[in-house]
């Protein structure tokens, strides 16, 4: 059973029992797939300040990051990127949570949270550096308080818990937030992180994006209970939320952040959504996924859902739609330009940022490699050789 801050819990219905993708009574939803606003006595409080203008901004955010995702996928298909991990269908989970964070909170993400990075203010060119093969890290983590994407499944949860222990020792009220997929819950790192987080009651939010597929394995194969229910075994309260409902995600994230800031320790959020595209652009989901399943989830599209609410409120005007389209097109063009004009890395760049301070062991390797390049008459190698002497 999943437990909210007030201690209420909901038992699984026959339909949801044994099916971690089903919606039981603990499935928090504030906007239906048709765009109808649902009143919730406990969670309305956490989004009571969201104005009509802010709803429009959330609509813009989700539209823009979908456009970023489509553009990046196109860049990969055109040979400009080596790989890209699409977020199509997961916009509400990323924007709803990302827009709930304070500037001093610190994010530790997987490789798919490009929407959260957008919320943190990442430079769009930096978003692509790793996937173009031009850098081993995309940005300075401390410039936006977000670590660079973690490729090792689940490792970022340990980093977040350690960072949260530091926050606790400093006596600050910032929060560490870590994002991971449903597949990562099978990794030892995630479970070890939750043990430490619960033991020391550190200010960390575990945000599990249940998109139903860990590459080609369905979530029901990994867990015969809802993922949020696993947290109880660690003594961590959990929330199970409709991950395609931006308001519900925002309410759950705000509640978890508030609990952490008040010294209430960690929270586990399971955002139930769906990966509409492939795991990465190297994947072919048609080999393992039923087309009917994709069609069913397309009817729950997070952007269409919010658009439905805006329409009901008389806010989805032609002017707003054009404004949002123009913003999305501008951002996509900016990102494409940054990608195609990105300077190619130089051979000696491989030695940059390996250690925080220079050391003789690395300098000797630099010297040997520079001499090796120079032996081929490489003027760049020869020039850089002088720089390391």
From TrEMBL:
InterPro entries: Alpha-ketoacid_DH_E1_comp, DH_E1, PdhA/BkdA, THDP-binding. It comes from Pseudarthrobacter niigatensis. Pfam families: E1_dh (PF00676). GO terms for biological process: branched-chain amino acid catabolic process. GO terms for molecular function: magnesium ion binding; pyruvate dehydrogenase (acetyl-transferring) activity. CDD domains: TPP_E1_PDC_ADC_BCADC (cd02000). Its cofactor is thiamine diphosphate. Residues 1-16 have a biased composition (Polar residues). It comes from the Bacteria. This is Pyruvate dehydrogenase E1 component alpha subunit. Residues 62-330 form the Dehydrogenase E1 component domain. The lineage of its organism: Bacteria, Bacillati, Actinomycetota, Actinomycetes, Micrococcales. Its EC number is 1.2.4.1.
């Amino acid at each position: 059973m999943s437990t909210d801050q007030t201690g209420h819990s909901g038992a699984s219905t026959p339909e949801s029992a044994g099916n971690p993708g089903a919606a039981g009574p603990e499935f928090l939803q504030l906007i239906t797939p048709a765009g109808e606003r649902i009143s919730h006595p406990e969670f309305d409080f956490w989004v009571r300040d969201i104005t009509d203008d802010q709803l429009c901004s959330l609509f813009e955010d989700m539209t823009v990051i979908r456009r970023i995702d489509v553009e990046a996928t196109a860049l990969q298909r055109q040979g400009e990127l080596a790989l890209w991990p699409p977020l199509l269908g997961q916009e509400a989970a990323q924007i709803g949570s990302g827009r709930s964070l304070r500037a001093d909170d610190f994010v530790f993400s997987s490789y798919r949270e490009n929407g959260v990075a957008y919320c943190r203010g990442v430079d769009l060119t930096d978003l692509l550096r790793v996937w173009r093969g031009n850098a081993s890290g995309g940005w300075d983590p401390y410039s936006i308080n977000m670590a660079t994407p973690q490729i090792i499944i689940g490792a970022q949860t340990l980093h977040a818990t350690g960072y949260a222990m530091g926050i606790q020792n400093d006596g600050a009220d910032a929060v560490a937030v870590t994002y991971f997929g449903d597949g990562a819950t099978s990794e030892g790192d995630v479970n070890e992180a939750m043990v430490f987080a619960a033991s020391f009651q550190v200010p960390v939010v575990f945000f599990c994006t249940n998109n139903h597929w860990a590459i080609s394995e369905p979530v029901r194969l990994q867990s015969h209970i809802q993922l949020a229910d696993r947290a109880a075994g660690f003594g961590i309260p959990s929330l199970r939320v409709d991950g395609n409902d931006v308001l519900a995600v925002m309410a759950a994230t705000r509640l978890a952040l508030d609990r952490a800031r008040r010294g209430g320790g960690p929270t586990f959020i399971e955002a139930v959504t769906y990966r509409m595209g492939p795991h990465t652009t190297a994947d072919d989901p048609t080999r393992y996924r039923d087309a009917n399943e994709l069609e069913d989830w397309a009817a729950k599209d997070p952007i269409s859902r919010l658009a439905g609410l805006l329409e009901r409120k008389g806010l989805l005007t032609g002017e707003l739609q054009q404004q949002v389209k123009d913003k999305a097109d501008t951002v996509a063009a900016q990102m494409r330009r940054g990608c195609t004009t990105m300077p190619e890395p130089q051979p000696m760049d491989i030695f940059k940022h390996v250690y925080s301070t220079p050391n003789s062991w690395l300098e000797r390797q630099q010297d040997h490699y520079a001499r090796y390049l120079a032996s081929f008459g490489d003027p760049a190698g020869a020039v850089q050789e002088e720089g390391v002497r």
